[in-house]
Amino acid sequence: MDKLKHGVFVAPFHDMDRDPTLAIQRDLELMEWLDRLGFDEAWIGEHHSAGFETISSPELFIAAAAERTRRIRFGTGVVSLPYHNPLMVANRIVQLNHMTRGRVMFGVGPGLLASDAVMLGIDPAVQRDRMVQALDVILRLFAGEAVTEKTDWYELVDARLHLLPYSRPRPEVAVASAATPSGGRVAGQYGLSMLCVAAGVLAGFDALTTNWDIACAVAERDGRAMSRDNLRVVLPIHLAETREAAAAQCREGLTRYIDYMNNNMPRYKVPDGIDIVEWWTGGHYGVIGTPDDAIAAIRRLLDQQQGFGTFLAMPTNFADWPACRRSHELYADHVMPHFWDANRARRASYSWVTANQQELVTKRSDATRRMFDRHEAEEAARKAADRD
User: Fold this and answer.
1) Whether residue 231 is found in the same domain as residue 359
2) CA 218 to chain CA mean position, Å
3) Are residues 366 and 231 part of one domain?
4) Is 294 a residue whose pLDDT tops 60?
Protein backbone atom coordinates (compact mmCIF):
# COMPACT_ATOMS: atom_id res chain seq x y z
CA MET A 1 0.00 0.00 0.00
CA ASP A 2 1.01 3.61 -0.57
CA LYS A 3 1.46 5.93 2.40
CA LEU A 4 -1.74 6.81 4.24
CA LYS A 5 -3.58 9.78 2.75
CA HIS A 6 -5.58 12.25 4.80
CA GLY A 7 -8.74 14.17 4.07
CA VAL A 8 -12.06 15.31 5.47
CA PHE A 9 -15.67 14.24 5.07
CA VAL A 10 -17.80 17.40 5.36
CA ALA A 11 -21.48 16.74 6.06
CA PRO A 12 -21.49 19.62 7.19
CA PHE A 13 -23.02 20.03 10.67
CA HIS A 14 -24.14 23.54 11.66
CA ASP A 15 -26.13 24.54 14.74
CA MET A 16 -29.44 26.18 13.96
CA ASP A 17 -28.60 29.25 16.07
CA ARG A 18 -25.71 30.17 13.73
CA ASP A 19 -25.99 32.32 10.60
CA PRO A 20 -26.40 29.88 7.66
CA THR A 21 -24.70 32.18 5.14
CA LEU A 22 -21.63 32.55 7.33
CA ALA A 23 -21.63 28.79 7.88
CA ILE A 24 -21.35 28.12 4.15
CA GLN A 25 -18.65 30.78 3.80
CA ARG A 26 -16.70 29.16 6.61
CA ASP A 27 -17.03 25.79 4.91
CA LEU A 28 -15.42 27.36 1.84
CA GLU A 29 -12.71 28.97 3.98
CA LEU A 30 -12.08 25.55 5.49
CA MET A 31 -11.36 24.17 2.00
CA GLU A 32 -8.75 26.89 1.47
CA TRP A 33 -7.23 26.19 4.89
CA LEU A 34 -7.06 22.43 4.27
CA ASP A 35 -5.44 23.02 0.90
CA ARG A 36 -2.71 25.13 2.52
CA LEU A 37 -2.24 22.57 5.29
CA GLY A 38 -1.62 19.77 2.81
CA PHE A 39 -4.76 17.64 3.15
CA ASP A 40 -5.22 15.33 0.18
CA GLU A 41 -8.98 15.46 -0.32
CA ALA A 42 -12.36 16.72 0.89
CA TRP A 43 -15.72 15.02 0.43
CA ILE A 44 -18.87 17.16 0.51
CA GLY A 45 -22.31 15.87 1.50
CA GLU A 46 -25.80 16.30 0.03
CA HIS A 47 -28.81 16.86 2.29
CA HIS A 48 -32.19 18.51 1.78
CA SER A 49 -33.89 18.50 5.16
CA ALA A 50 -33.58 18.34 8.96
CA GLY A 51 -31.84 21.69 9.43
CA PHE A 52 -28.22 20.83 10.35
CA GLU A 53 -26.51 19.61 7.18
CA THR A 54 -26.82 22.68 5.02
CA ILE A 55 -25.23 21.81 1.65
CA SER A 56 -27.82 20.55 -0.81
CA SER A 57 -25.58 20.53 -3.89
CA PRO A 58 -22.05 19.23 -3.40
CA GLU A 59 -21.35 19.98 -7.06
CA LEU A 60 -22.08 23.69 -6.62
CA PHE A 61 -19.93 23.82 -3.50
CA ILE A 62 -17.05 21.97 -5.14
CA ALA A 63 -17.12 24.30 -8.15
CA ALA A 64 -16.64 27.29 -5.85
CA ALA A 65 -14.08 25.56 -3.62
CA ALA A 66 -11.98 24.41 -6.57
CA GLU A 67 -11.52 28.01 -7.70
CA ARG A 68 -10.14 28.91 -4.25
CA THR A 69 -7.66 26.03 -4.00
CA ARG A 70 -4.66 24.61 -5.85
CA ARG A 71 -4.10 20.93 -5.16
CA ILE A 72 -6.69 19.35 -2.86
CA ARG A 73 -9.09 16.90 -4.53
CA PHE A 74 -12.85 17.09 -4.00
CA GLY A 75 -15.44 14.34 -3.85
CA THR A 76 -19.21 14.31 -3.75
CA GLY A 77 -19.87 12.71 -0.40
CA VAL A 78 -22.27 11.61 -1.69
CA VAL A 79 -24.70 12.32 -4.53
CA SER A 80 -27.96 10.62 -3.51
CA LEU A 81 -28.64 8.98 -6.86
CA PRO A 82 -32.37 8.16 -6.40
CA TYR A 83 -33.07 11.91 -6.19
CA HIS A 84 -31.68 12.71 -9.66
CA ASN A 85 -31.95 11.76 -13.30
CA PRO A 86 -28.78 9.76 -14.02
CA LEU A 87 -28.01 11.63 -17.27
CA MET A 88 -28.10 14.96 -15.42
CA VAL A 89 -25.79 13.61 -12.71
CA ALA A 90 -23.31 12.28 -15.27
CA ASN A 91 -23.24 15.62 -17.09
CA ARG A 92 -22.66 17.60 -13.89
CA ILE A 93 -19.79 15.35 -12.76
CA VAL A 94 -18.12 15.41 -16.16
CA GLN A 95 -18.37 19.21 -16.26
CA LEU A 96 -16.80 19.40 -12.79
CA ASN A 97 -14.13 16.94 -13.89
CA HIS A 98 -13.12 19.35 -16.66
CA MET A 99 -13.48 22.51 -14.56
CA THR A 100 -11.16 21.07 -11.90
CA ARG A 101 -8.82 19.39 -14.42
CA GLY A 102 -9.31 16.03 -12.80
CA ARG A 103 -9.53 17.06 -9.13
CA VAL A 104 -13.08 15.76 -8.66
CA MET A 105 -14.14 12.33 -7.37
CA PHE A 106 -17.65 10.95 -7.68
CA GLY A 107 -19.12 9.52 -4.49
CA VAL A 108 -22.55 7.91 -4.66
CA GLY A 109 -25.12 6.61 -2.20
CA PRO A 110 -28.82 5.84 -1.86
CA GLY A 111 -29.61 8.87 0.33
CA LEU A 112 -29.34 8.88 4.12
CA LEU A 113 -32.21 10.97 5.47
CA ALA A 114 -35.65 9.45 5.14
CA SER A 115 -37.05 12.99 5.30
CA ASP A 116 -35.31 13.82 2.01
CA ALA A 117 -36.85 10.82 0.28
CA VAL A 118 -40.33 11.41 1.68
CA MET A 119 -40.38 15.00 0.39
CA LEU A 120 -39.64 13.62 -3.09
CA GLY A 121 -42.34 10.96 -2.81
CA ILE A 122 -39.74 8.17 -2.73
CA ASP A 123 -40.26 5.09 -0.62
CA PRO A 124 -37.00 4.63 1.36
CA ALA A 125 -37.33 0.89 0.75
CA VAL A 126 -36.51 1.34 -2.95
CA GLN A 127 -33.58 3.73 -2.59
CA ARG A 128 -30.76 1.17 -2.68
CA ASP A 129 -32.12 -0.55 -5.79
CA ARG A 130 -32.55 2.80 -7.52
CA MET A 131 -29.02 3.78 -6.62
CA VAL A 132 -27.68 0.70 -8.40
CA GLN A 133 -29.90 1.36 -11.43
CA ALA A 134 -28.68 4.93 -11.74
CA LEU A 135 -25.03 4.06 -11.09
CA ASP A 136 -25.02 1.42 -13.81
CA VAL A 137 -26.33 3.96 -16.33
CA ILE A 138 -23.87 6.66 -15.24
CA LEU A 139 -20.87 4.34 -15.60
CA ARG A 140 -22.04 3.41 -19.09
CA LEU A 141 -22.43 7.08 -19.98
CA PHE A 142 -18.92 7.83 -18.66
CA ALA A 143 -17.65 5.11 -21.01
CA GLY A 144 -19.25 6.84 -24.01
CA GLU A 145 -22.22 4.52 -24.46
CA ALA A 146 -25.63 5.58 -25.70
CA VAL A 147 -28.34 4.41 -23.29
CA THR A 148 -31.98 3.75 -23.93
CA GLU A 149 -33.74 2.62 -20.78
CA LYS A 150 -37.12 3.03 -19.12
CA THR A 151 -37.76 2.36 -15.43
CA ASP A 152 -40.53 3.32 -13.03
CA TRP A 153 -38.67 6.53 -12.13
CA TYR A 154 -36.73 7.73 -15.19
CA GLU A 155 -36.62 7.27 -18.96
CA LEU A 156 -33.64 7.75 -21.26
CA VAL A 157 -33.90 7.69 -25.05
CA ASP A 158 -30.62 7.29 -26.92
CA ALA A 159 -29.02 9.28 -24.09
CA ARG A 160 -25.31 10.03 -24.33
CA LEU A 161 -22.75 12.49 -23.06
CA HIS A 162 -21.61 15.16 -25.49
CA LEU A 163 -18.57 15.78 -23.28
CA LEU A 164 -16.53 12.79 -22.13
CA PRO A 165 -14.60 12.84 -18.83
CA TYR A 166 -11.37 14.81 -18.50
CA SER A 167 -9.99 11.95 -16.36
CA ARG A 168 -9.56 8.78 -18.39
CA PRO A 169 -11.25 6.49 -18.44
CA ARG A 170 -13.40 8.26 -15.81
CA PRO A 171 -13.18 10.08 -12.48
CA GLU A 172 -12.65 7.93 -9.43
CA VAL A 173 -16.03 6.56 -8.32
CA ALA A 174 -16.69 5.64 -4.69
CA VAL A 175 -19.75 4.11 -3.08
CA ALA A 176 -20.83 4.83 0.49
CA SER A 177 -20.80 1.90 2.91
CA ALA A 178 -22.25 2.03 6.42
CA ALA A 179 -23.75 -0.85 8.38
CA THR A 180 -25.51 -2.76 5.58
CA PRO A 181 -23.73 -4.93 2.98
CA SER A 182 -25.17 -3.03 0.00
CA GLY A 183 -22.22 -0.67 -0.41
CA GLY A 184 -19.70 -3.50 -0.38
CA ARG A 185 -21.69 -5.49 -2.92
CA VAL A 186 -21.89 -2.55 -5.34
CA ALA A 187 -18.21 -1.66 -4.91
CA GLY A 188 -17.20 -5.24 -5.68
CA GLN A 189 -19.59 -5.57 -8.60
CA TYR A 190 -18.29 -2.49 -10.40
CA GLY A 191 -14.74 -2.31 -9.04
CA LEU A 192 -15.32 0.97 -7.19
CA SER A 193 -13.70 2.65 -4.22
CA MET A 194 -15.47 2.44 -0.85
CA LEU A 195 -16.35 5.20 1.61
CA CYS A 196 -16.88 3.70 5.06
CA VAL A 197 -18.83 6.55 6.62
CA ALA A 198 -19.90 5.01 9.93
CA ALA A 199 -16.67 3.93 11.62
CA GLY A 200 -17.68 5.90 14.71
CA VAL A 201 -20.93 3.98 15.13
CA LEU A 202 -20.65 0.54 16.72
CA ALA A 203 -22.59 -1.20 13.96
CA GLY A 204 -20.52 0.57 11.32
CA PHE A 205 -17.22 -0.27 13.02
CA ASP A 206 -18.18 -3.93 13.30
CA ALA A 207 -19.26 -3.95 9.63
CA LEU A 208 -16.02 -2.48 8.28
CA THR A 209 -14.25 -5.78 7.77
CA THR A 210 -17.41 -7.65 6.79
CA ASN A 211 -18.37 -5.18 4.06
CA TRP A 212 -14.83 -5.09 2.69
CA ASP A 213 -14.77 -8.88 2.59
CA ILE A 214 -18.08 -8.83 0.73
CA ALA A 215 -16.67 -6.37 -1.82
CA CYS A 216 -13.58 -8.55 -2.32
CA ALA A 217 -15.66 -11.72 -2.73
CA VAL A 218 -17.99 -10.13 -5.29
CA ALA A 219 -15.05 -8.69 -7.24
CA GLU A 220 -13.22 -12.01 -7.21
CA ARG A 221 -16.21 -13.74 -8.81
CA ASP A 222 -15.78 -11.39 -11.77
CA GLY A 223 -12.02 -11.89 -11.92
CA ARG A 224 -11.08 -8.58 -10.27
CA ALA A 225 -9.17 -7.73 -7.11
CA MET A 226 -10.05 -4.88 -4.76
CA SER A 227 -7.27 -2.62 -3.51
CA ARG A 228 -7.19 -1.28 0.04
CA ASP A 229 -5.63 1.88 -1.37
CA ASN A 230 -9.16 2.68 -2.59
CA LEU A 231 -10.74 2.22 0.83
CA ARG A 232 -11.58 5.30 2.91
CA VAL A 233 -12.63 5.37 6.57
CA VAL A 234 -14.42 8.28 8.27
CA LEU A 235 -14.36 9.28 11.96
CA PRO A 236 -15.35 12.55 13.70
CA ILE A 237 -12.27 14.39 15.00
CA HIS A 238 -11.72 17.52 17.10
CA LEU A 239 -8.28 18.30 18.50
CA ALA A 240 -6.80 20.78 20.93
CA GLU A 241 -3.53 21.06 22.86
CA THR A 242 -5.03 19.17 25.82
CA ARG A 243 -7.94 16.81 26.35
CA GLU A 244 -9.43 19.22 28.85
CA ALA A 245 -9.38 22.09 26.34
CA ALA A 246 -10.90 19.94 23.59
CA ALA A 247 -13.67 18.76 25.90
CA ALA A 248 -14.49 22.31 27.03
CA GLN A 249 -14.62 23.48 23.40
CA CYS A 250 -16.95 20.67 22.29
CA ARG A 251 -19.27 19.82 25.19
CA GLU A 252 -22.17 22.08 24.18
CA GLY A 253 -21.83 21.43 20.45
CA LEU A 254 -21.68 17.66 20.97
CA THR A 255 -24.92 17.80 22.93
CA ARG A 256 -26.64 19.60 20.05
CA TYR A 257 -25.21 17.14 17.55
CA ILE A 258 -26.52 14.16 19.52
CA ASP A 259 -29.95 15.82 19.70
CA TYR A 260 -29.89 16.33 15.92
CA MET A 261 -28.86 12.77 15.13
CA ASN A 262 -31.49 11.32 17.46
CA ASN A 263 -34.12 13.61 15.98
CA ASN A 264 -33.53 11.94 12.61
CA MET A 265 -33.37 8.39 13.94
CA PRO A 266 -32.76 7.54 17.61
CA ARG A 267 -29.35 5.91 17.75
CA TYR A 268 -27.41 7.41 20.67
CA LYS A 269 -28.38 7.07 24.33
CA VAL A 270 -26.20 8.97 26.75
CA PRO A 271 -26.35 7.34 30.20
CA ASP A 272 -27.47 9.50 33.08
CA GLY A 273 -24.76 10.89 35.32
CA ILE A 274 -21.89 10.71 32.80
CA ASP A 275 -20.14 13.55 31.05
CA ILE A 276 -21.18 13.54 27.39
CA VAL A 277 -17.61 13.99 26.09
CA GLU A 278 -16.37 11.14 28.30
CA TRP A 279 -19.19 8.94 27.00
CA TRP A 280 -18.44 9.89 23.37
CA THR A 281 -14.72 9.26 23.49
CA GLY A 282 -15.03 6.18 25.70
CA GLY A 283 -17.44 4.62 23.20
CA HIS A 284 -15.04 5.34 20.29
CA TYR A 285 -17.75 7.36 18.52
CA GLY A 286 -15.11 9.93 17.64
CA VAL A 287 -12.07 11.78 18.94
CA ILE A 288 -12.26 14.83 21.18
CA GLY A 289 -8.74 15.19 22.47
CA THR A 290 -5.14 15.64 21.41
CA PRO A 291 -3.19 14.64 18.29
CA ASP A 292 -1.98 11.57 20.20
CA ASP A 293 -5.61 10.53 20.72
CA ALA A 294 -6.26 10.89 16.99
CA ILE A 295 -3.19 8.80 16.17
CA ALA A 296 -4.38 6.05 18.55
CA ALA A 297 -7.89 6.06 17.04
CA ILE A 298 -6.60 5.84 13.47
CA ARG A 299 -4.24 3.02 14.44
CA ARG A 300 -7.18 1.17 15.99
CA LEU A 301 -9.07 1.47 12.70
CA LEU A 302 -6.03 0.46 10.65
CA ASP A 303 -5.56 -2.65 12.79
CA GLN A 304 -9.24 -3.53 12.66
CA GLN A 305 -9.42 -3.08 8.89
CA GLN A 306 -5.92 -4.42 8.15
CA GLY A 307 -5.12 -1.20 6.36
CA PHE A 308 -6.80 1.35 4.13
CA GLY A 309 -5.72 4.08 1.74
CA THR A 310 -7.22 7.27 3.18
CA PHE A 311 -8.42 8.42 6.56
CA LEU A 312 -11.14 11.07 6.46
CA ALA A 313 -11.59 13.21 9.55
CA MET A 314 -15.17 14.40 9.85
CA PRO A 315 -15.25 18.08 10.90
CA THR A 316 -17.68 18.17 13.80
CA ASN A 317 -18.19 21.91 14.18
CA PHE A 318 -18.82 21.15 17.86
CA ALA A 319 -16.51 24.06 18.71
CA ASP A 320 -16.36 27.64 17.49
CA TRP A 321 -14.67 28.54 14.21
CA PRO A 322 -11.19 29.47 15.56
CA ALA A 323 -11.02 26.22 17.55
CA CYS A 324 -12.10 24.21 14.49
CA ARG A 325 -9.39 25.83 12.36
CA ARG A 326 -6.85 25.06 15.06
CA SER A 327 -8.02 21.45 15.21
CA HIS A 328 -7.20 20.90 11.55
CA GLU A 329 -3.86 22.65 11.98
CA LEU A 330 -2.94 20.34 14.85
CA TYR A 331 -3.95 17.35 12.73
CA ALA A 332 -1.73 18.50 9.85
CA ASP A 333 1.16 19.41 12.15
CA HIS A 334 1.24 16.20 14.21
CA VAL A 335 -1.01 13.42 12.89
CA MET A 336 -0.11 13.50 9.21
CA PRO A 337 3.68 13.43 9.71
CA HIS A 338 3.31 10.57 12.19
CA PHE A 339 1.71 8.30 9.60
CA TRP A 340 3.99 9.50 6.82
CA ASP A 341 7.06 9.00 9.03
CA ALA A 342 7.99 12.44 7.71
CA ASN A 343 10.63 13.09 10.37
CA ARG A 344 12.51 9.79 10.20
CA ALA A 345 15.51 11.29 8.44
CA ARG A 346 15.54 14.28 10.81
CA ARG A 347 15.46 12.03 13.87
CA ALA A 348 18.20 9.84 12.41
CA SER A 349 20.34 12.89 11.74
CA TYR A 350 19.79 14.19 15.28
CA SER A 351 20.66 10.79 16.75
CA TRP A 352 23.79 10.54 14.61
CA VAL A 353 24.98 13.94 15.87
CA THR A 354 24.25 12.89 19.45
CA ALA A 355 26.17 9.63 19.06
CA ASN A 356 29.16 11.40 17.51
CA GLN A 357 29.02 14.54 19.60
CA GLN A 358 32.46 14.26 21.19
CA GLU A 359 34.19 13.60 17.89
CA LEU A 360 32.33 16.46 16.21
CA VAL A 361 33.15 18.85 19.08
CA THR A 362 36.81 17.86 18.90
CA LYS A 363 36.94 18.38 15.14
CA ARG A 364 35.22 21.75 15.41
CA SER A 365 37.53 22.84 18.24
CA ASP A 366 40.60 21.69 16.30
CA ALA A 367 39.42 23.56 13.22
CA THR A 368 38.83 26.69 15.27
CA ARG A 369 42.26 26.46 16.93
CA ARG A 370 43.97 25.93 13.59
CA MET A 371 42.22 29.01 12.21
CA PHE A 372 43.46 31.12 15.14
CA ASP A 373 46.97 29.64 14.80
CA ARG A 374 47.01 30.39 11.08
CA HIS A 375 45.78 33.93 11.65
CA GLU A 376 48.42 34.59 14.32
CA ALA A 377 51.16 33.13 12.13
CA GLU A 378 50.10 35.24 9.16
CA GLU A 379 49.98 38.38 11.31
CA ALA A 380 53.43 37.67 12.73
CA ALA A 381 54.81 37.16 9.22
CA ARG A 382 53.21 40.39 8.01
CA LYS A 383 54.68 42.37 10.92
CA ALA A 384 58.09 40.86 10.31
CA ALA A 385 57.88 41.81 6.66
CA ASP A 386 56.92 45.37 7.60
CA ARG A 387 59.99 45.65 9.87
CA ASP A 388 62.24 44.55 7.07
Assistant:
1) no
2) 26
3) no
4) yes
